[in-house]
Amino acid sequence: MGMLDSELLTIVTLLALIQFIWFGFRVGAARGKYGISAPATTGHDLFERHYRVHYNTLEALVVFLPALWAFGSYVSEYWAAGLGVVYLVGRVVYALSYVKDPQGRGLGMLLSSLPVYVMLLGGLGGAIWDHMIG
């Protein structure tokens, strides 16, 4: 594979981190609005929904970020960036729908999970391929 031109991956990575911080601010605002003092993580249903969105996004980032960079390195930076944007949109859809009604989170979960799975498997396949032919 040729040299990676990583600006797009850097932009998507930083947007994902900014999104995570934004979800954290929403948790803090919900903590204040519903009177949930730290370190409590329960106490009001809407606070708990914001908390779960934030925590679930943290869980997703652990797989998303390495998958993004592996796919970008071994398959295509442009496709990785595009799939990363779909992930970011999916996380927003997930966050808004989960806070509104946790049962309605399906579309957002799908939009944010499928790109990660594609990048994870594609990045792994690309790395194995490069190792076999290189």
CATH T-level fold name: Four Helix Bundle (Hemerythrin (Met), subunit A)
Q: What's the tally of helices? A: 4
Total beta strands: 0
User: Which CATH architecture would you pick?
Assistant: Up-down Bundle
Distance between the amino and carboxyl termini = 10 Å
* Biggest sheet descriptor: none
- Compute the average pLDDT: 96
Along the chain, the helix and strand elements come as HHHH
The fourth-level CATH homologous superfamily is Membrane associated eicosanoid/glutathione metabolism-like domain
Description of the structure:
- The relative contact order is 0.15.
- The protein has helices at 7-33, 45-74, 77-100, 106-133.
- The longest helix is centred in the middle third of the chain and has 30 residues, at 45-74.
- It has one domain (7-133): Membrane associated eicosanoid/glutathione metabolism-like domain (Four Helix Bundle (Hemerythrin (Met), subunit A), Up-down Bundle), CATH 1.20.120.550.
- It contains 4 helices and no strands.
- The protein is mainly alpha-helical and 134 residues long.
Short description:
The protein is mainly alpha-helical. The longest helix has 30 residues, at 45-74.
Annotation keywords:
single chain, 134 residues, mainly alpha, Four Helix Bundle (Hemerythrin (Met), subunit A), 4 helices, 0% strand, elongated
Which helices and strands, and how do they pair?
Elements (H helix, E strand, L loop, with lengths): L6 H27 L11 H30 L2 H24 L5 H28 L1
